[in-house]
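Late entry, written up from scratch paper. The run itself happened at the end of the previous shift, but nothing got recorded in the book at the time, so transcribing now.
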Amino acid sequence: MEQKKSLFEILEEIVKRDSRYEIEGYNFVLLAFNYTSAKLKSPGHISGKDLLEGIREYALQQYGPMARILLEHWGIKQSSDFGEIVFNLVDSGLLGKSENDNIDDFKNGFDFVEAFDKPFKL
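Output as recorded:
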């Protein structure tokens, strides 16, 4: 009987295949996905645009003025990095996608300084 892999084991495998991002970055995106799904009351599909907005809100809520610094520490420096992470999670079976979803949906989503630093500037 084949034993199921834990979430951590799956994330470790992803990081071995694509070491640009830390395991914490993948975990953060999964948590932000759940946050966005609950906020939108959408148990199914979430568009890249909606997910980016949810990611931004969740990061600010969880990490405040440290959000950008933490994300960058995990290798996430621009919104397209979220697309790379999401599609790695899709490839591993942790997230699904529709035929209309495209990694380009995450390009030019938002500027990190504007999104994460500006809300805390006086």
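The radius of gyration is 14 Å.
(Scratch paper discarded after transcription.)
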